[in-house]
Design a protein that fits this description.
three-stranded antiparallel sheet; 13 strands
């Protein structure tokens, strides 16, 4: 690249611009500039100028050079996390990755639940002796005073969507290459947004693809991707998150939003935030294991592995377990004794499977259960119903989506059991539970992180065998489900498959050209199917709706052909059958309806 005229820059911009020029000169070759000029249809000098402009917007202050900015930013953000939750770190996990730090760059990739995630991770890393990270954050957070302080403290504000901008893509790649060569640690949130449902969102592959190029360009020995899970016993902002998931309303980020966040978090004071570090992923090992595969295939493998390790690092919380118990089909309010008895087999199952459960020390007898329930009541997650001798608890009519947020935060440990229950129920029609289970995998993979087909089949067979052993081994059918101490399929799969069925009915019945329906929003799906019965209110979720549309697209149902129209009708009927089977399982899970549900089904 030739010398670039910087006279167009404003006062005070020259320092960052000269850094941008140096990065571009070192890491962007002449061939890439020629290619960029051709792609953007701009003369070479103009393409260079745009590249420098984009690089200048990315460059952050050195994390070791501006300690005053880091300290001031920590003071500003302290009320978000430091005054609300008591932090429980993972000393063993932090020590494991501490051994890698200094030898290789680390990229911390936390699952994103809260605005408190980043301050909590920063505090944990400082306490463990890590150098500051360069943190990639969406440019929606670039508002005063976070923009000025954050950039000086090592925050890289990045566009949330730049997939079709080759200039910006090249700028991000060059800057990441520079940082990797310097050996610094990075941090970003691979889901590109906080979860709205409690589940891990789909990991966005774009930045990982750029990181792969930057790793090759920097010519370093290795780098490690570090999955991090941060869970909260109570998360006040979950109310706003589920509201956004339902109706699309989101408060804009800004200083006023920070103050609202401070006030909302007061309900969670005295709670606990738990940070767990997952098993690091060697990027070089991933490349060697996928020798000969294309770069996007490598990235797909990495995102899948990262998702599994994030789930493995995320424990089941007692709040998740309690909301799971309270989502018990047709039962009314339950008192503490009933809830405690219903909780016992679930916790025994977790112990038998080695599922990590946090907060068990708070469930010492009925009094401990009531204390946790009362905190959930104050957080608006469940409702207390006054009784003659003691209160009872239930999920209120307007609380289903918020309770589902907590329930689904630990669902990854239980999802294979839930699938096995529904597959065994469906086996009454086809004989082999593996057949419906594989069909369910194709649908549910749009929502949950599931094993690869071979591992999935093996796990499914193990779950079916366990259900039969606990039920009626002599009768390998859905009759074995009646005698189970608890059932998970209605609680975990009901909302998902009802949402998919709603989308299927909409695709089947909505008038107009099918191509127009691809552009319609999920709110229109809800409006057009508003007359349909709703068994699981939490199924009215925009994320589940989008997953349902993705599943339909994968089935080839968005084509405007007579064959696709017939397939859409069959697809809607198939999902209706799954929903009907789940409705029968709800009755199996209700003591007064056990025999009635069994007689009607068999």
């Amino acid at each position: 690249m030739n010398a670039i005229d910087l006279s167009w820059l404003g006062p005070g911009s020259h320092r960052r611009a000269r850094t941008a020029v140096a990065i571009a000169h070192r890491w962007v070759g002449s061939r890439e500039m020629v290619r960029l000029s051709a792609t953007t249809h701009l003369p070479g000098p103009e393409a260079e100028r745009l590249l420098i402009h984009d690089l200048q917007g990315l460059i952050a202050g050195g994390v070791g050079d501006r300690q005053w900015a880091r300290r001031l930013l920590a003071v500003l953000l302290h009320p978000i996390a430091g005054t609300t939750w008591q932090l429980q770190n993972d000393p063993a996990g932090l020590a494991r990755v501490r051994k890698l730090s200094g030898r290789y760059p680390l990229v911390f990739l936390p699952a994103h639940r809260s605005y408190a995630d980043s301050p909590i991770l920063g505090s944990a890393l400082r306490d463990a002796g890590f150098a500051g990270t360069y943190r990639l954050a969406g440019d929606n957070l670039s508002f005063w005073p976070l923009s000025a302080l954050g950039r000086r403290a090592g925050t890289i504000f990045i566009r949330r969507d730049f997939g079709r901008d080759p200039t910006y893509h090249l700028a991000v790649r060059a800057y990441l290459t520079q940082l990797l060569e310097q050996g610094v640690n990075l941090e970003w949130y691979p889901e590109a947004g906080r979860t709205r449902t409690g589940r891990l969102r789909r990991i966005r592959p774009g930045l990982l693809r750029i990181l792969l190029d930057a790793f090759r360009d920097a010519r370093i020995d290795d780098l490690y991707l570090v999955p991090v899970s941060i869970t909260y016993d109570l998360l006040p902002e979950a109310q706003a998150l589920v509201q956004e998931d339902r109706d699309g309303t989101k408060q804009p980020e800004g200083l006023s939003a920070i103050f609202r966040y401070y006030r909302r978090n007061r309900v969670a004071r005295g709670g606990t935030a738990r940070l767990i570090v997952g098993e690091p992923i060697s990027l070089r090992h991933q490349l060697l294991s996928a020798a000969g595969a294309g770069d996007w295939a490598v990235v797909e493998t990495i995102t899948r592995e990262l998702a599994h390790r994030l789930d493995a690092a995320t424990p089941l919380t007692v709040e998740s377990a309690l909301t799971l118990v309270l989502a018990e089909g047709e039962r009314g309010p339950q008192n503490v004794g009933q809830i405690n008895r219903a909780l016992e087999p679930l916790l025994a199952f977790a112990a038998d499977r080695g599922i990590p459960v946090t907060g068990l020390n708070r469930l010492h007898g009925p009094r401990g259960v009531q204390t946790v329930l009362d905190r959930l009541v104050r957080a608006g997650v469940v409702t207390a119903v006054e009784g003659q001798f003691q209160p009872s608890y239930r999920i209120g009519p307007d609380q289903h989506q918020l309770a589902a947020f907590y329930r689904y935060s630990g669902s990854h440990w239980l999802i294979m059991r839930a699938i096995a229950e529904l597959a065994l129920m469906s086996a009454a029609d086809c004989g082999d539970p593996i057949v419906p289970a594989m069909r369910l995998r194709g649908l549910l993979a749009h929502v949950f992180v599931l094993p690869q087909p071979a591992q999935y089949t093996e796990a499914l067979r193990g779950e079916v065998a366990d259900l039969l052993r606990r039920g009626r081994p002599e009768d390998p059918s859905s009759a074995s489900l009646v005698t189970q101490s608890f059932l998970l399929a209605p609680r975990l799969l009901g909302p998902v498959l009802e949402a998919f069925h709603r989308v299927a009915v909409w695709l089947r019945d909505a008038p107009g050209p099918l191509r127009d329906r691809r552009r319609w929003s999920c709110l229109e799906v809800f409006a057009d199917t508003s007359e349909a019965p709703v068994r699981w209110p939490e199924s009215l979720s925009r994320e589940l709706c989008r997953a349902g549309l993705a599943a339909a697209a994968q089935e080839g149902l968005l084509q405007s052909t007579p064959a696709a129209a017939a397939a859409r009708a069959e697809y809607a009927d198939e999902l209706a059958e799954f929903v009907d089977q789940l409705a029968h399982l709800v009755r199996f899970d209700t003591v007064p309806g056990l025999l009635r549900g069994l007689d009607e089904r068999l």
